[in-house]
Amino acid sequence: MPYEYKTDIAQKYFPWVSERVAMRMLNHEIRATRGLLDALTAAGYTPSAHRLTPLQVEILYRYLGDP
């Protein structure tokens, strides 16, 4: 599985809002969900990342559930 754009993932979780708002909402969930930011950071994630690795996407799904 190739890298996925963070905006595409945000739209999967929040399809009823604009791309910009979906990104804000996803970033909020990443910060607010206990342990998620730490797990992503351990997998090489940085908050300014535009693309996520397959491992980072798997971590997101594990913590937030399937979109």
Verbal overview:
The protein has 67 residues and is mainly α. Helices cover 60% and strands 6% of the residues. It has 4 helices and 2 strands, in the order E-H-H-H-E-H. The chain has a two-stranded antiparallel sheet. The longest helix has 14 residues, at 19-32. The relative contact order is 0.21.
What is this entry, summarized?
This protein is mainly alpha-helical and 67 residues long. The protein has helices at 6-13, 19-32, 36-42, 54-64, and strands at 4-5, 51-52.
- Provide the β-strand percentage band: 5-15%
Query: What does the average pLDDT come to?
Result: 95
Helix percentage range: 55-70%
Q: Which residues sit in consecutive blocks of at least 5 with pLDDT less than 50?
A: none
Q: Total strand count, please?
A: 2
What key phrases describe this protein's structure?
single chain; 67 residues; mainly alpha; two-stranded antiparallel sheet; 4 helices; 2 strands; 6% strand
Strand-helix topology:
Blueprint: E1 4-5, H1 6-13, H2 19-32, H3 36-42, E2 51-52, H4 54-64
Antiparallel strand pairs: 1-2
